[in-house]
Design brief:
There is one protein chain. The chain is of the alpha+beta class. It has two domains: 36-248 and 339-495, 3-Layer(aba) Sandwich (Rossmann fold), CATH 3.40.50; 261-329, no CATH class. It is 30% helix and 11% strand. It has 16 helices and 18 strands. It has helices at 2-21, 42-45, 54-57, 61-68, 137-142, 159-164, 170-176, 189-195, 216-233, 253-256, 301-305, 312-315, 338-361, 369-377, 407-425, 462-467, and strands spanning 36-40, 99-101, 109-111, 181-185, 238-242, 258-259, 271-272, 275-276, 280-283, 286-289, 295-296, 335-336, 366-367, 381-383, 386-387, 448-450, 453-455, 494-495. The chain has a four-stranded parallel β-sheet, with helices on both faces. The protein has a three-stranded antiparallel β-sheet with strand order 6-11-12. Strands 15-14-18 form a three-stranded antiparallel β-sheet, with no helix packed on it. Helix 7 runs parallel beside helix 9 (216-233). It starts with a helix and ends with a strand.
Length: 499
């Protein structure tokens, strides 16, 4: 009897191990990481502090994912035959020049006065990371860099020429590489470009598509077309996509930091009968008081400092009468009203529903990016004991442009795609380390890889580290793991979660 019980226990244990190793999701393709390809927009590209440059591209979520699977990153001196994960590296300070922090204030964020340039334009094969800043779904399907009459934001910038290089669209070049695994976090700029332009208007039926919301029916058609092209061209490739946080307006400094109310010199609200006074702007084509709950976009802070937006009835009173533009209205593009925020939020909700429906029909897992942003907002994420929040400059999640992540933020984002891949495909990719961003800051030992150059950083105090959390350090050596705890990685990143 005892022997039978022991046998039963052993059998049960073996069955548990077998079941634990089998993915519970009937995922598309296979988990073969020998040739990873990524498509997407500025987030997947690793855009940080208003710039695309090599110091941060090495921490793009696509690069981090590839590194964690055992890949190496291509250097500018590598050839097309080198077995490495290639990105369209841009020399520092990038395109355009990276924003720098001269003092911890809105006026202390300044642009580098010169630009870098492409470091791998002669690389004789498509890049593994094809993600292009400003790329809407239209661009992922159509933009090649050869356009002479721009119809989208991407086509109006150098990035199509730098990344697509007239070799085909993102998805066409992705398929041409015969990928074995594809990261496709796509569709964000189909709402993001409108939101950061102070608009909730739908794109028209025909081009151009600038700073507008892609209609949901068109979004569904284009999103499905991208995935179907990948599946048809690489039927054995595994694929992971991601959703988008609908409450981005209450979290992203670019859209949430500055309330559209009159502030005094100490940045406290000026009250009238106990109520804040709305700023003055253009509503429906005419000057008017902005609805309470409106926010001023971060780049318009310089206008506020000159007095723009101060209502005419206050413009002649001190201290506002010393400001040259007091009494002049903010432009419609400077502001997101509550109605615009609600419209964009509703569109993101519809986009997420479409992504999940289209992905499920093709057995493609969806990374829970919304969950990550929600945990950051709730104060449930810390790195090396330091809370990671949405606060501007000091929070650690968002960079100096206020609408893109830091290197830490992108590492956390990459880990969401790793978790989803492990869950859906039964793999054991280790989570990427994050505490490295707070280590080895001694000038005798601190180095950062920037292309083939080594950069030394000075020693920072703990407070300065929180402010300067976007600086880079050498990628830590990573190890294969047979299992991982999703609430804590080897580096000390902790997410307090209720299961």
């Amino acid at each position: 009897m005892t022997r039978n019980r022991s046998f039963a226990r052993i059998t049960a244990a073996l069955l548990f191990v077998i079941l634990a190793a089998v993915p519970l999701f009937a995922a598309q393709g296979k988990a073969d990481f020998s040739h990873i390809v990524a498509i997407g927009d500025s987030y997947t590209a690793g855009w940080v502090n208003g710039s695309l440059n090599e110091r941060h591209q090495i921490f793009s979520p696509a690069a981090i994912f590839a590194l964690q699977t055992g890949a190496t990153l291509c250097q500018p001196t590598d050839s097309a035959t080198t077995d490495c994960f290639a990105q369209p590296l841009v020399t520092w300070p990038g395109i355009p020049g990276e924003l720098q922090l001269t003092s911890p204030s809105l006026t202390g964020v300044v642009a580098t006065p010169y630009n870098g340039g492409p470091a791998m334009s002669g690389f004789a094969r498509p890049y593994n990371n094809m993600a292009t800043p400003g790329a809407m779904l239209y661009d992922i399907l159509n933009t090649t860099g050869a356009e002479t009459q721009p119809v989208t934001f991407t086509q109006a910038t150098p990035f199509g020429l730098v990344i697509e290089r007239k070799l085909g669209s993102q998805v066409d070049q992705a398929v041409a590489q015969h990928p074995t695994f594809v990261l496709a976090w796509i569709g964000g700029d189909d709402f993001f470009l409108a939101a950061t332009s102070g608009s909730a208007a739908d794109c028209g039926a025909t081009a151009p598509f600038f700073n507008c919301l892609t209609p949901i029916d068109r979004f569904k058609t284009q999103y499905a077309a991208v995935l179907d092209k990948i599946i048809a061209g690489a039927p054995q490739a595994g694929i992971v996509v991601g959703d988008f946080p609908a409450a981005v307006f209450t979290q992203m400094p670019y859209t949430a930091l500055i309330p559209a109310i009159v502030l005094d010199t100490t940045l406290k609200p000026v009250l009238n009968n106990g109520q804040p006074i709305p700023l003055f702007g253009i509503i429906n084509g005419a000057p008017a008081a902005l609805p309470l709950g409106s926010t001023v976009l971060l780049p318009s802070a310089t206008k506020l400092l000159s007095g723009t937006g101060i209502p005419p009835q206050l413009a002649t009173l001190p201290p506002f009468n010393t400001l040259p533009n007091a009494g002049k209205p903010l432009a419609d593009a400077d502001v997101l009203t509550p109605a615009e925020q609600a419209a964009i939020g509703a569109r993101i909700t519809a986009i997420n529903a479409a992504i999940k429906e289209i992905a499920a029909a093709r057995n493609i897992p969806v990374a829970d990016v919304t969950g990550l942003f929600n945990r950051i907002k709730a104060g449930q994420v810390s790195v090396a004991g330091v809370p990671i929040t949405s606060a501007y400059i000091t929070g650690g999640a968002f960079g100096l442009d206020g609408n893109h992540l830091t290197d830490i933020g992108y590492t956390l984002l990459a880990n969401e795609f790793i978790k989803t891949t492990n869950s859906a495909y039964g793999t054991h990719i280790p989570l990427a380390p994050t505490s490295r961003f707070f280590q080895n800051n001694d000038p005798a030992t601190a180095e950062a890889i920037s292309g083939s150059n080594l950069l030394t950083f000075p020693t920072f105090s703990p407070d300065a580290l929180r402010t300067l959390s976007f600086f880079t350090t050498s990628p830590a050596r990573h190890f294969r793991a047979t299992s991982h705890d999703e609430t804590k990685d080897r580096s000390g990143e902790i997410e307090t979660r209720n299961h």
